[in-house]
Amino acid sequence: MRRTASLAALAAALLLVSLANALPHDDHDGMDMNMDHGHGHGDAPADAPKDTGDPADLSYFAYGEHSGMILAHIILMVLSWCFILPVGVMFSVARSRFALPTQFLFLAVNALGVFLGIIYNAQTPDLYENNVHHKIGWIVTWVMVAQVVMGLILWYSGQGRDKYGAAYERAAFLPVSTEAAAEHQHSYPSGAVHEYRWSGDSGQGTERNSSSLQSRPSSPDHYEKPEDDVEEKPALSRGCFHIPVLDQFLANRIPGLVSSRALKILDIVYIIIDRIILPFGFIALVTGGVVYGGIFKGHYIFNGLAHFIKGGIFVWYGLLTLGRWMGCWADFGWAWNVKPPREVVGNWKARIPTGEFTESLVIFLYGASNVFLEHLGGWGGEWSATDLEHVSIAFLFFGGGLCGMFFESKRIRDWLNKTVLRPSNQLETYGQPDPAWQMPNTQNVSLNPMPALVILLLGMMMGSHHQSDMTSTMVHKQWGDLLVGFSLARFATYVLFFIKPPTSYLPSRPPTEILASFCLVAGGLIFMMSTENVIQTLNYYDLDAMFTFTVGMGFTAFVMAWEITTIAIKAWAVKKEQPPQLPPFRFPA
Q: What is the C-alpha R_g of the chain?
């Protein structure tokens, strides 16, 4: 359910792009996949904001007063949303005792940044009327405040002890029989996998009522903690603030204020916020940059929305791909690993489709919606060649996504296996199953090239898409080539797994997927920088297309390094909350 919420958010973003296509504008300039037909980058539309020729005019970037305060606001917001909050989310996903303190630190730094922003707004004229950054910023800030309050309620209601820290002490005293321990050890592949717990990204083994927190079948020779040592569980009585009076007050008052059903609802909402808050923070930061630079005013809003929304989706696609490579969603079988059986991951996780099916579904939803929305801006008028070109791209996404979902259907695969060649009655040779009639290992792993093929064709089209401005043409070619690079890297992954399919429940981590994620993140960033206003700004300051390329590559490398660091922090937190490995106990003979 938790990863499904993230996928739903991604699909909703794509639908938002599609709905934006319905807005009336000339020649579909802003919101189509090609985005730059109609007037070129050098021709400003009639309703563009009037200025003196400098694209930085009428912007906070060019406004010289109180620049130190706005820079401090920017630094604090980047520090809180890009560095502190991701660590807090990882701690929260890992059910770590450090989650709430980190979230309080985020609120403090974010509050200081908001305070400086309010002062700056009061001392400067309104240079971007009715900007959306203020609204989104306040929404995400209050969402985080609400999540921290929910975390405190869950903590002091008793359920927070399962969520943060007390699972360590509680699991350490579970009775475990030696027979059950031996059976548990041999139920996993070779390599002592019994010491692993599935990634906290999907909460495996850490949520309440999970099988890993329940008492295993006991026998007369089970191990129990002596009663006189029970008081050695300090986390059960430890408060969040480490202030005895405050902790005791909250522990006495909060449990009686919230019912058990309300606690379950709060827990679900808390989990959902964990999964969606970082993309919303990304939106808040990006809109802040738009307002600070004074871009996307007037008719430019359509072109800007198209580039930033679609480019941002590719950025997050790359970040999710890197997360898959590191082992996130291994319990879904998304880490290029063998999907664990239902007995290991549970019923609902066993029903989760493959990662390639999910990619194909998102592509299909985009194409299906855009097929019917490409001409809404000129509803009632004639269809132009540009309209037909854009609809053809939508059909590519529609058909490609549909093919990808069909390829991932196990039912269709079983039908084809039974109709291609009917097995004979001689299924056994010398008392053993005939291996010639068994399903090949390559059918146990998803080798679906359709998502990569669709993006490959999109990259080729964008790389060869002519613009009226040379800088714009070169920038479009940069991100088009990067999307092609992603597709080639993904094809190489499938070749590797066709030669030697994975056999382990643990992530296989193909090196080609590192290249794939890098190309997606970098391509998405340069996609965002290829918008019309940004190109005009580059031309004004005598910057060429190499500026976007070098900035995009350097920023991508840093972002990937930071993502690896945060996921490693989450893995450390999960390990720290795990109970110690107790040796099997046997009564003396």
A: 27
Type and span of the H or E element at 429: strand 428-429
For residue 433, the SS3 value is strand
455 CA to centre of own chain: 19
**The predicted structure's pLDDT at residue 442:** 83
308 membership: H or E segment, kind and range: helix 300-326
Whether 511 contacts 464, CB under 8 Å: no
Any idea which residue has 């060019």 for tokens? Answer: 62
Q: Which pair of structure tokens corresponds to residue 540?
A: 């004004």
Is the Cβ–Cβ distance between 585 and 106 less than 8 Å? Answer: no
CA dist 157 and 270 (Å) reads 15
Whole-model pTM?
A: 0.77
Name the nearest CA neighbour of 469 among 528, 390, 545, 529: 545
Residue 540, helix vs strand vs coil: helix
pLDDT on residue 144: 96
| Of 523, 511, 530, the residue nearest 484 (C-alpha) | 523
Please, are residues 487 and 494 in contact by the beta-carbon 8 Å criterion?
no
Q: Does domain 56-173+233-294 have CATH number 3.40.630?
A: no
User: What gap in Å lies between CA 352 and CA 451, rounded to an integer?
Assistant: 18
Cα separation of 105 and 10, whole Å? 28
pLDDT for 48 equals 40
Separation of alpha carbons 139 and 557, rounded Å: 30
Rounded to the nearest integer, the mean pLDDT of the chain is 78
- Buried b / exposed e over 469-480, threshold 16 CB at 10 Å, is bebbbbbbbbbb
Q: Token digits for 449?
A: 């090239």
pLDDT for position 250: 83
Whole-angstrom distance, CA of residue 264 vs CA of residue 258: 10
What does the alpha-carbon distance between residue 306 and residue 38 come to, in Å, rounded to a whole number? Answer: 15
DSSP letters of 23-54?
Answer: S--GGGTTTSSS---SS-TTS--TTSPP-SS-
What does DSSP assign to residue 578?
S
Name residues whose C-beta falls within 8 Å of residue 503's C-beta, 6 or more positions apart in sequence: 189, 338, 441
Note whether 391 and 375 are within 8 A (CB).
Answer: yes
Per-residue model confidence (pLDDT) at position 260: 86
How far is residue 520's CA from residue 556's CA, in Å, rounded to a whole number?
9
Supply φ then ψ for residue 428, to 5 degrees. -125, 140
DSSP 158: S
Residue pair 28/374 in contact by the 8 Å Cβ criterion: yes
**In degrees, to the nearest 5, what angle opens at C-alpha 283 toward C-alphas 292 and 389?**
100
Give rounded-to-5 percent helix, strand, coil for the chain: 65, 0, 35
Domain limits of the chain?
A: 13-49+299-415+442-574, 56-173+233-294
Q: Is 542 left (phi over 0), alpha (psi -120 to 50) or beta?
A: left
- Could you tell me the two tokens for 529? 């920088």
Tell me, what amino acid is at 89?
A: V
Q: Which residues of the chain fall below pLDDT 70?
A: 1-57, 158-239, 372-380, 386, 420-434, 580-589
Residue 478 to residues 127, 464, 544, 548, 557, Cα–Cα distance (Å): 33, 10, 12, 9, 16
